[in-house]
Design brief:
Number of strands of chain B: 18
Family (chain B): Belongs to the PpiD chaperone family.
Radius of gyration of chain A: 29 Å
Membrane topology (chain B): Single-pass type II membrane protein
CATH class of one domain in chain B: Alpha Beta
Shape of chain A: elongated
Number of strands of chain A: 0
Main location (chain B): membrane
Number of helices of chain A: 9
Structural class of chain A: mainly alpha
Protein name (chain B): Periplasmic chaperone PpiD
Shape of chain B: extended
Strand content of chain A: under 5%
Largest interface: A-B, 67 and 62 residues
Structural class of chain B: alpha+beta
GO molecular function, one term (chain B): peptidyl-prolyl cis-trans isomerase activity
Largest sheet of chain B: 5 strands, antiparallel
CATH topology of one domain in chain B: Chitinase A, domain 3
Oligomer: heterodimer
Number of helices of chain B: 20
Helix content of chain B: 40-55%
Distance between the termini of chain B: 59 Å
Chain lengths: 214, 619
């Protein structure tokens, strides 16, 4: 057992060795936590404003009517893609912009919105859907090869059925019934695997039936 | 020098450690340290490391069960909790995937948005569409949720909706797609068909014994008898105890009296008028009594009660209406008052002076409508069973106790039957998949094929049936799944092979006809003509219509073998593309339907996509 004085002495010694760095450490840590929290709350409020704008946008596009609908929606889209361009809300805003353009029959503009979404998003599902929609517009403009090349991804994941069904349509317009049939078949299989029906694909497959198989 | 370096390095380590701990706290909070330390024994699944517990799954399954039962569309007996749990687990996994993705993408909903959503929910509003705090708390309590938990849940739901809605709500339909859809779906076809019946070839079919045996050997697994059991059983019907119970005529009379009294007092209606006088001492009371007695005499002599009430009554509210009280419900007034009132039978009759806590009353019966009490004979049976209910319950529970003890201690069900005086029955062979009548009830089915019964030969406890009777059973014979010998199934096999052969011959005959048709020959007779058939037409059998839609202008004829073995020869005559509507309202409606369908598929696709990216472990 050491005496109290000895203990006090060793404590003092320890303090003289480590005291400064300990205080510095605590100060740095407190500053760090404070800074982190401030940054975090800034991020939260930023995300919440984007979310608010996005909710309004979706509300207006789904329920609005007339010219004011497009004007209000365009203003919201501009703010989302400008002030929050890196957020997922901006991705969705671009998809909405494409929808509005299609409704106005401005297919080229719709394409550029979809391309922007395709290039900027970091969400795979959004990328796949943007590809799909672009390819559909190209198909309607009879730009079949461009559409086909957009659809050639290694794995269309949860959207395989939609990808293959569209590929089937595109191959049909190229006159390649054999490959079209294969694509429709894949689409049908993907739908069935997910427990869903695909009546349109079945109709198209039927019309491509090879004689003799049932 | 060396000491200096050591001091310095210690300082750096201290910085580093404190910094590290501080970061951990700020990022994940205190909880993280604790949850990291304990594993969850209730865990059912892990989604990217986040666990889903048995508790969550059970709670959701129970919620769904409650909803299903409330909807009244499902029989509680048929509810399969395991299926509901499986369903709930899937749903929780999907919600967790969405939650993680939304968090990953830094998607958020502010508390204000949550509040606004709550205020907008129909369930919490009154009929004027205003939010009702009381309804809100009450409904939450019914669901066993705290407001904070509900808000958190709603918060999550809203974020998930944003994540999913971004894909489905931004969907569009191109004009060319709308046209293509109408051309395809609305297509109509003209065609004709003829059926080559398999039945016509049956007489030509010869099945040899060798073929029979070969088929039996090949398909041996098809010829198994199912698992089946035959049991001895007895049925105890509590209603049978009634026969041995007696109700004396006297008891019945008493019960009838009670019944009639209650009915009269509950369903009769009286209306009355009164005159009230109050008093504050004995002298006043006497005077008041006297005054009322005089009034009574006056009324009996022909004076108008209403007039007197207006003049005399101190019940000012009714005095103005001539003392009228209106209809009097039994039990709503003072007992003495009611007794006096109900004792009168003729409208216009006046009571003696009645004393209540309000004062002294004189009552006149204004109108009386008696409930009609059915005669004893009409309600005899009902009263009898009412009288017997209590003793019957007691006797039933005694009998069940006896049966339970007997079935536990007896060697055979026959002993139980003899000791209890209940008739013994024997069932036929019972197959698990096709149980008749009460054998199919889940409790019975479970008992029938339980180890206790099948292997150990035990007698079951009394099992309650849905109709209120009780069943006790014990195995008589049991047969596991087993091979049937060829002799036992020869007829069945022969019939099957004959059918197969006839089907084949019909197909061959049809093929010949198809070739003749394709060679340009004319086939006469029994064609059926179909014109303007849609894809869902009712005018032709489904398989045949579908075949007609598989044909095309460069391949106009085909065969389809139907479920009954017949083969149809189908020849396409004309294809007419679907009509493209010009009606804007119709087109808008169609567009809406297509958007809805696509939106649904996109959301499902998104969830599938998340599943394919995630690491999901099931326990």
């Amino acid at each position: 057992m050491r005496s109290d004085e000895e203990q006090l002495e060793s404590l003092k010694e320890w303090w003289s060795k480590n005291g400064k760095s300990l205080i510095a450490g605590v100060v740095v840590a407190v500053a760090g936590v404070g800074g982190w929290k401030a940054w975090e709350s800034h991020q939260i409020s930023k995300a919440e404003s984007a979310s608010q704008l996005y909710s309004e946008l979706s509300q207006i596009v789904m329920n609005g009517t007339g010219e004011s609908r497009d004007q209000q929606a365009d203003a919201l889209i501009a703010r989302l893609t400008g002030d929050f361009s890196k957020s997922v809300y901006a991705d969705y805003a671009r998809l909405f912009a494409a929808r509005l353009a299609v409704e106005r029959d401005e297919l080229d503009q719709a394409q550029s919105h979809l391309r922007a979404a395709l290039d900027s998003t970091r969400v795979e599902a959004i990328e796949l859907v943007a590809r799909l929609r672009l390819a559909r517009i190209l198909n309607s403009q009879e730009r079949v090869d461009e559409a086909l090349s957009l659809l050639s991804v290694p794995n269309a994941g949860g959207f395989t059925a939609e990808f293959e069904a569209l590929r089937g349509d595109l191959l049909m317009s190229k006159g390649d019934a054999l490959q079209a049939r294969e694509a429709y078949q894949k689409a049908l299989e993907a739908s069935r695997a997910a427990g869903e029906s695909a009546p349109l694909v079945e109709m198209k497959l039927d019309s491509l039936a090879i004689h003799g198989d049932a | 020098m060396l000491v200096k370096i050591r001091e310095k390095s210690r300082g750096i380590v201290a910085y580093f450690l404190v910094g590290l701990i501080a970061i951990a706290f700020s990022m994940w909070g205190m909880d993280s340290l604790f949850t990291a330390m304990r594993g969850d024994p209730n865990e059912l699944a892990r989604v990217n490391g986040e666990s889903i517990s048995q508790f969550q799954v059970d709670r959701m399954a129970q919620q769904q069960m409650r909803q299903l039962l409330q909807s009244g569309q499902i029989d509680p007996e048929q509810l399969d909790m395991n299926l509901l749990r499986q369903f709930s687990l899937n749903q929780l996994i999907q919600e967790e995937l969405l939650r993680q993705k939304a968090a990953d993408l830094n998607m958020r909903v502010s508390d204000r948005q949550v509040e606004r959503q709550i205020v907008r929910m129909r369930a919490f509003q009154d009929e004027n569409g205003r939010f009702q705090q009381e309804t809100f708390t009450q409904l939450l309590r019914q669901e066993g949720l705290s407001p904070a938990a509900f808000r958190a849940q709603l918060h999550e739901d809203l974020v998930n909706q944003q994540l999913l809605g971004g894909l489905s709500d931004s969907e569009f339909v191109l004009a060319s797609e709308l046209t293509e859809f109408q051309l395809l779906v609305g297509q109509q076809r003209d065609y004709r068909y003829r059926v080559i019946a398999a039945e016509d070839f049956i007489s030509q079919v010869r099945i040899t014994d060798e073929a029979l045996e070969a088929f039996y050997r090949e398909q041996i697994a098809r010829f198994m008898t199912p698992e089946q059991i035959r049991v001895d059983y007895l049925i105890f019907d509590p209603a049978s105890l009634v026969a041995g119970m007696n109700v004396s005529e006297e008891e019945l009379q008493q019960e009838y009296q009670r019944y009639a009294d209650t009915l009269r007092s509950q369903s009769s209606s009286y209306s009355a008028a009164h005159i009230l006088l109050t008093y504050s001492n004995n002298a006043e009371k006497q005077a008041a009594t006297q005054r009322l007695q005089e009034a009574r005499q006056e009324v009996l002599a022909g004076a108008d009660f209403a007039e007197l009430a207006r003049d005399l009554s101190e019940d000012l509210a009714t005095a103005r209406r001539g003392g009228e009280l209106g209809p009097v419900q039994p039990g709503s007034l003072n007992a003495a008052f009611e007794t006096a009132l109900f004792a009168m039978s003729e409208p216009g009759q006046v009571s003696e002076v009645v004393e209540t806590e309000f004062g002294l009353h004189l009552i006149q019966l204004l109108a009386r409508e008696d409930a009609s009490v059915p005669p004893l004979n009409e309600v005899r049976e009902e009263l009898r069973s009412r009288l017997l209910a209590q003793p019957l319950r007691a006797a039933t529970s005694d009998k069940l106790e006896q049966l339970r003890n007997l079935s536990f201690s007896s060697e055979s069900l026959k002993e139980v039957a003899e000791a209890s005086g209940i008739e013994l029955h024997q069932s036929g062979w019972l197959v698990r998949e096709t149980l008749p009548s009460f054998w199919a009830e889940s409790a019975v089915r479970e008992a029938l094929f339980s180890r206790d019964v099948i292997e150990d030969g035990w007698i079951t406890e009394p099992l309650r049936l849905q109709d209120g009777r009780y069943l006790v059973l014990a195995r008589d014979a049991y047969q596991p799944r087993q091979q049937q010998p060829l002799e036992a199934v020869a007829d069945e096999v022969r019939e099957h092979l004959t059918q197969v052969q006839a089907t084949k011959m019909a197909r061959e005959a049809a093929t010949t006809q198809l070739e003749q048709l394709q060679a340009g020959e004319t086939l006469r007779g029994n064609w059926r003509e179909i014109t303007g058939a849609t894809r869902n037409t009712q005018n032709a059998p489904r398989d045949i219509n579908r075949e007609a839609f598989r044909l095309s202008n460069n391949n106009t004829a085909g065969l389809v073998t139907l479920a009954n073995g017949d083969t149809a020869l189908v020849e396409l005559q004309r294809v007419q593309q679907g009509e493209v509507s010009q009606d804007q309202a119709e087109l808008a409606q169609l567009r809406r339907l297509l958007l809805e369908d696509r939106g649904y598929r996109l959301q499902a696709g998104f969830v599938k996509q998340l599943e394919s990216e995630a690491k999901i472990e099931l326990r």
